[in-house]
């Protein structure tokens, strides 16, 4: 197939946070299977990644449109969905994935620079949780969801076990989980499915912002001990599974938190008590 040939007939994936990490891997995977065009949103901090992604989507025979904006407000959602409607037309979005990583780490009671003060809390909730609702509202208002559309939030295992300075991330993900369940109930009768995909640590730029190179190496080694499979998961593992969730076979998942962690937290007690 020539580059982009037949891409007009394809349905679309809307991916928030498409220029890097998990979102970029999902964008590339769903272009190949089930064969979607991609409208990706990002703020431009990974400009090179965005250009490479557009190329990989074209190579796979799809159309990729990357739209640069801060996706965390209702106004951004309305403007983004209007731009998407221009290129894709109504009832064209088969898959919506919320893959934004924009949270503050720190401690609620810290006296230092890492204090989670009100502005950080509001910003994190806007970015990591509320924006999911804003974009779904805009998609529905503009009649953009294709028949039997799939909507997906992303979760980590920090709802099962605590990790020092990630309390605000976990709180915002808890809100996201509830948004997913309630939207599943509201959209279910219309034929759409809304789920939360929970997966363990995968190496992405978001992690590299948080950890030093030495800490990252320790992290990889710790995951090799923790995960029953003996290695850290990858964005490709996650992306491959999203292609399954976008398919007909996964149509009965709804309002679910789907555990794709590979058993990451099963051995924690064992590791602590029997080191
Ligand atoms: N990495 C993990 O181990 C892991 C594990 C489980 C779940 N998750 C979840 O997976 C999702 C993606 O994480 P990741 O690690 O793949 O992150 P990442 O590599 O840092 O990518 C984040 C993406 O979001 C974009 N972005 C961030 N803030 C934005 C904003 N306000 N508006 C528009 N775009 C924005 C970034 O581009 P710009 O900065 O240029 O905007 C980038 O494209 C997150 O929800 C995370 O909680 C990650």
TrEMBL record:
GO terms for molecular function: oxidoreductase activity. Signal peptide: none annotated. Keywords: Oxidoreductase. The keyword Oxidoreductase applies. PANTHER family: DIHYDROANTICAPSIN 7-DEHYDROGENASE. Belongs to the short-chain dehydrogenases/reductases (SDR) family. This is Oxidoreductase, short chain dehydrogenase/reductase family. The lineage of its organism: Bacteria, Pseudomonadati, Myxococcota, Myxococcia, Myxococcales.
